[in-house]
């Protein structure tokens, strides 16, 4: 893990602890990387309850309560789906905060509408859901995943600090 991600993970842990919030994650393209970064910090068990790696649409639907209609109409990499993922994991884990990711990490799977590097993220903080679309430069699968984890935690930390 890069130094910037280590520092950011500590900041996220501190911000959650200061506010008395707990966190859960629902991850697709990041494969549990957001949860791994957050839990790399000693004492993270105070703020992190758990995560779901929902790579398959069946898991998004059956575990996180994402509607079949949203998956069919908008696709897994969409604002509508990450909104439902973040709400679903927060409900499942009984947390005040949650993060969801779904994207095209590559090298394949991209389309003209959703090229490799397209990622949708959603954040639940203080009862409010915020979404963000990332359009990453395609630097290869591993770099795309790492960049997604880093950007996701940066956005989440900003939202926590503003709450």
Commentary on this structure:
By secondary structure, this protein is of the alpha/beta class. It has one domain: Alpha-Beta Complex (Maf protein). It has six helices and five strands; from the N terminus they run αβαβαααβββα. Helix 1 (3-19) runs parallel beside helix 6. The longest helix has 22 residues, at 141-162. The relative contact order is 0.18.
Low-confidence regions: none
Integer average pLDDT: 96
Number of helices: 6
Radius of gyration: 15 Å
- State the CATH superfamily name: CinA-like
Largest sheet: 5 strands, mixed
Sequence of strands across the biggest β-sheet: 2-1-3-4-5
- The number of domains is 1
Q: What's the CATH architecture? A: Alpha-Beta Complex
Beta content = 15-25%
Class of secondary structure makeup: alpha/beta
Q: Fill in the CATH topology.
A: Maf protein
Assign an overall shape.
globular
Q: Could you tell me the number of beta strands?
A: 5
Summarize the structure.
With 163 residues, the protein is α/β, with parallel strands linked by helices. Helices cover 45% and strands 21% of the residues. The protein has a single domain, classed as Maf protein, CATH 3.90.950.20.
